[in-house]
Every structure is written in C-alpha cells, then in structure tokens.
Automatic annotation (TrEMBL):
One of its GO terms (cellular component) is plasma membrane. It comes from Clostridioides difficile. The chain crosses the membrane at residues 73-94, 106-124, 130-148, 182-204, 210-230, 251-272, 284-301, 313-330. This is Ca2+/Na+ antiporter. Keywords: Membrane, Transmembrane, Transmembrane helix. It is found in: Membrane. GO terms for molecular function: calcium channel activity; calcium, potassium:sodium antiporter activity. GO terms for biological process: intracellular calcium ion homeostasis. It comes from the Bacteria. The gene is yrbG. The keyword Membrane applies.
Length: 331
C-alpha cells in the first residue's frame, strides 16, 4: 500500500508539472499569433486534454464494456464543469469574450440536444455516431477558421511592422515563429502532454488500488475515480491557467473538452459496439450534466462574466451528484 500511495503522489506531480509546461507553451502560441485565449483553450488545449477520455472510452468499447464508455464521457463532462470550472470560477471569477463564449456554448448545447435525441431509443448506434462526427467536423472547421483568421491578422502586422527584425533572425519564419522556436514549442508541448497523460494513468491505477483496499464498490470507482482521473488534465491545466492569469484558456478548455466528449469520445466509442443507455444515465447522469451546463451558460451570456456564485453552484451540484451516487451504490 505504501508503494501505491507513493505512485499516487508521483502521478499527481507529473500532471501538475506537465500542465505547467503545457500552459506555458499555449500562452506563447497565443502571444506570437494573437489568437484569443478562449479559442486556444477550445482548440489546442481541449483536444489534447481530452485524449485520456478518448483512449479510456474507446478501449472500453472495444473490450465490450460499452456502458463504461458513456459513463466515462458523461462523468468527465460533469467533472470538468462541476469540479474543474466550478473550482476555477470560485477561486477567481472573470469576464469572458462574449462572441467566442456564445459560439462555443451554442455548439455545446446543440451537441447535448443531439445526444439526448439519439439516446431516446435506448442506444447510441454506429449510425448515430455519424451524426455526432458531422458536428465534430463542423466544430473543427469553425475552430480552424477562428485560428487562421486571428493568425493571419497577426502575420500581416508582423510583415508590416517587424520586417527588419525578422530578416535578421536565422532560419525561416512562420507566423512569427522561427524554425527553432517551432521545434522547441512542439517538444515542450508534447512533453507536457505526455507527462499529464502518464501521470493521469498512474493516478487512476493507484487510485483504483487504494479504493479496492478501502472496499469502495467498483461502481463508485468507475463513475468517480476514473472520470476524475481522465479529467485531471483539464482540471490541472485550467487551475494552472488561472494561476498564471490566463482565465479564458480555462473556460475555452472546459467548453471545448465537453463538446469533444460528446462528438468525438462518445461518437468514436459507438463504432466498435453500440452503446446502451442505462436508466441511471437517463435519470441521473444526463440531467446533472444538463443542469451544470445551464449553470455555466445562461448567467454568463447575460453578464459576460463567470461569477463566484456560479462557481459555488457548480461545486455544490457536482458534490450533490457524487453524494447521490454514494447513496445509490453503498447505502
């Protein structure tokens, strides 16, 4: 047990340091390209931090554990929104870019509505996954246009204002980056991401062993520890972002990760095997997911700000959900 606890701490340290490197690279990209932080959070950060959920859910589906695929994705959305964003907003409320927040929120709402409609017949089929993948493609195209538009503006400014500075540097430049800078950022970015993924895996495995030692039921483990474990990159990267005063990376990361959990994680996981919708998913998991998303979106669209009250409500809703699970599985 001592070794397991040590591994648990090692995993935590890996994802913490990995997130620190990861966010520094993201901020550097934003500084050089003039891309807004909420776009960076919804693209680079969310795609990368959703990899653990994607891997766990896809492998679970391939192995025939299809209910775990849906539970992991929905549980991660609940954890991302209730715990990660709730904690971020509680610690440091902040204003948002209304236009970008609206576009990402709208796509998240559309994704949730489509998921609900597809689940009405009690199963997510391979055919259903195609519709979700279409939304994923739209999301990627939308993000690409946002990134390219901002980056092109920055590139024109660079050409007009800093031609002499650029010409004196060795090597070719791309959108304000030298070749060496691109290589350095890519290596650091990959290092931070790998550290977070490995750290999350160590944390999950050691957490499951600790839970087993404490006789915690497997149902609680899969819905809490695994969902929490696969959400750790989002949680730690978001907290690291606010610690470095880059708040919109946090909200962009969470909104983007939530969209991807639906249109990529669930969609791709439904291809090897159909995913059944359990009564618990319909009566508990999905309603709590919707409630948390509404707590985030509705007040923020009115005030252009994520407030501490929202953070408290998100945290309360998350722990209420965990408490209900506890009573369902243990009491």
């Amino acid at each position: 047990m001592f070794i397991t606890v040590v591994l648990f701490l090692v995993g935590f340290l890996l994802i913490t340091k990995g997130a620190d490197i990861f966010i520094n690279c993201t901020v550097e990209i934003g500084r050089k390209t003039n891309i807004s932080e909420i776009i960076l959070g919804a693209t680079i950060v969310s795609f990368a931090t959703t990899l653990p959920e994607f891997t766990v859910s896809l492998l679970a589906s391939i192995d025939g554990h299809t209910t775990m695929s849906l539970g992991n994705a929905v549980g991660s959305i609940i954890c991302n929104t209730g715990l990660a964003l709730g904690l971020v907003v509680f610690l440091s409320p902040f204003n948002v870019d209304k236009k970008m927040f609206f576009s990402k929120s709208l796509l998240l709402i559309v994704s949730v509505i489509v998921l609900i409609l597809l689940s009405l017949d009690g199963v997510i089929t391979r055919g259903d996954s195609l519709l979700l993948i279409i939304i994923l493609i739209f999301y990627m195209v939308n993000n690409y246009r946002s990134v390219v538009g901002k980056s092109d503006t920055k590139s024109r400014n660079i050409k007009n204002n800093t031609i002499k500075d650029i010409s004196t540097k060795k090597g070719k430049n791309y959108r304000g980056f030298s070749v060496l800078e691109i290589v350095k950022i890519l290596l650091l970015f990959a290092t931070g991401l790998i550290m977070m993924i490995i750290g999350s895996q160590i944390l999950i495995e050691s957490g499951v062993r600790i839970a087993s030692f404490l006789n915690i039921p497997q149902g609680i483990v899969s819905l809490t520890i695994i969902a929490l474990g696969t959400s750790l990159p989002e949680i730690v990267s978001s907290i690291t972002a606010i610690r470095k005063n880059h708040h919109e990376i946090s909200v962009g990361n969470i909104l983007g990760a939530n969209i991807l959990n639906i249109v990529s994680v669930i969609a791709i996981s439904a291809i090897p095997n159909n995913i059944p919708i359990l009564s618990q998913n319909r009566q508990l998991d999905i309603p709590f997911m919707i409630l948390l998303i509404l707590i985030v979106i509705i007040p923020t669209l009115k005030s252009n700000r994520l407030s501490r009250i929202q953070g408290i409500l998100m945290l309360f809703t998350y722990f209420l959900y965990i408490s209900i699970l506890y009573f369902m599985y243990i009491i």
